[in-house]
Design goal:
This protein has helices spanning 4-14, 26-31, 35-42, 57-65, 88-94, 105-115, 152-166; strands spanning 21-25, 47-52, 98-102, 122-127. It is of the alpha/beta class and 172 residues long. The structure holds thiamine diphosphate and magnesium ion (MG).
């Protein structure tokens, strides 16, 4: 986390003939983004697709999968006085980048194509849903669940963990 914008700039400097698209979450963007200003100054164009689900979505899903309650990953579950409403378009524009929101996938696709003609970075912000997934990846994350104690949801999570762990291949 945090290297995505700088990484995209580095890739574009190394391979200027390539189209570079940086796919970054709101949390990662918040960790580090100031190379955007450098890329504007140096005229290094790449495209950032910023998915805004208002928090650490994948860690929240992992927390749920491990039987935990949603806590301190999404802003809505965090101990804050005020829920942040970060204007990522305004933030990126303040560094000189082209920035706009996409309302849906069709707009996102069109804006990615439009970005190809610019000589500065383009930031496309899209609101995303934090908890539901497509399931298409069929992934599983090997994070162990405590063996004793906890509420019923923890027992279910533990069973789920053990059956997935049993399916793992081992390598010598
Ligand atoms: C420096 C660093 N800190 C913490 C983590 C653990 N971590 C992995 S993904 C993630 C949350 C990412 O949030 P966001 O960028 O908003 O993406 P989302 O999962 O919401 O799509 C965290 C905290 C990490 N990988 N690197
Ligand atoms: Mg997020």
């Amino acid at each position: 986390m945090g290297y995505e914008v700088a990484g995209a700039m580095g890739i574009k400097l190394a391979r200027p003939e390539k189209e570079v698209i940086c796919f970054v979450g709101d949390g990662s963007y918040m960790m580090a983004n100031s190379e955007l200003a450098t890329a504007v100054m140096r005229r290094v164009p790449f495209t950032i697709v910023l998915t805004d689900n208002r928090g650490y979505g994948c860690i929240n899903r992992l927390q749920i999968e491990c039987g935990g309650a949603e806590f301190n990953n999404m802003y809505k579950d965090s101990n804050v006085e005020v829920q942040p409403e970060i204007d990522f378009v305004g933030h990126a524009k303040s560094m000189g980048a082209h920035a706009e929101k996409a309302a849906n996938i069709a707009e996102l696709e069109a804006k990615i194509i439009e970005a190809r003609s610019r000589n500065i970075p383009s930031v496309i912000v899209i609101d995303t849903e934090a908890v539901s997934g497509t399931g298409a990846g069929g992934h599983w994350w090997d994070v162990a669940v405590p063996e004793v104690g906890g509420p019923e949801r923890l027992e279910k999570a533990r069973e789920h963990y053990q059956s997935n762990a049993a399916n793992q291949r081992t390598f010598d």
